[in-house]
Amino acid sequence: MNNILFFLTPKAMCAFVYDDYTIRQALEKMESAGYAALPILNKHGEYRGTLTEGDLLWALKNMCYMDMRQAEARRIMEITRRKDNIPVRVTTSMHDLVQRASTQNFVPVVDDYDAFIGIVTRSAIIKYCSENLFQED
Fold first, then answer.
1. CATH code of the domain in which 13 resides
2. Could you report the per-residue pLDDT of 91-119, keeping only the tens digit for each?
3. Which of 31, 37, 93, 123 is surrounded by the most beta carbons within 10 Å?
4. Residue 28: φ, ψ to 5°
């Protein structure tokens, strides 16, 4: 297997937030999507970073003083993020993809113009390995 597109969840099937979302909008999107981390995109579709539940929790405490009205006035790009998932290109080797997935729960994938095209989840890689490398005799 040499093509990371095999593992790709396309953008149309991904949950994500836009970089101009308020903290409240991001909370609501994360709640409805049911994920602990979401890619952040700008309106041009470029990957800007990763927003986690922990980032939002600390932002509510430190920036909004636990007040949802203030969460409507603050933008997510004001949040100090613990770590952004580093994107890869579709030409990235499987070795590099697996290395990246070992430290990120998802790997953002961008095209040659840095436009976000989807994600590869760690669970997709593990599922493939389970089904193809560890088949029962």
1. 3.10.580.10
2. 999 999 999 999 999 999 999 999 999 99
3. 37
4. -65, -40
pLDDT of residue 1 exceeding 80:
no
Token pair 């099937």 is at which residue? Answer: 13
Whether 137 maps to a domain, the answer reads no
Rounded to 10 degrees, the C-alpha dihedral 46/50/56/61 comes to: -100
Please choose, from the candidates 35, 17, 34, the residue with its C-alpha nearest in 3D space to the C-alpha of residue 26: 17
- Over residues 40-94, the pLDDT tens digits come to 999 999 999 999 999 999 999 899 887 888 899 999 999 999 999 999 999 999 9
| Inside any domain, residue 115 | yes
What is the token pair recorded at 30? 């994360």
How are the residues of the chain apportioned to helix, strand and coil, as percentages rounded to the nearest 5? Answer: 40, 25, 35
Q: Considering its fold, how many domains does the chain have in total?
A: 1
Q: What does the alpha-carbon distance between residue 132 and residue 10 come to, in Å, rounded to a whole number?
A: 23
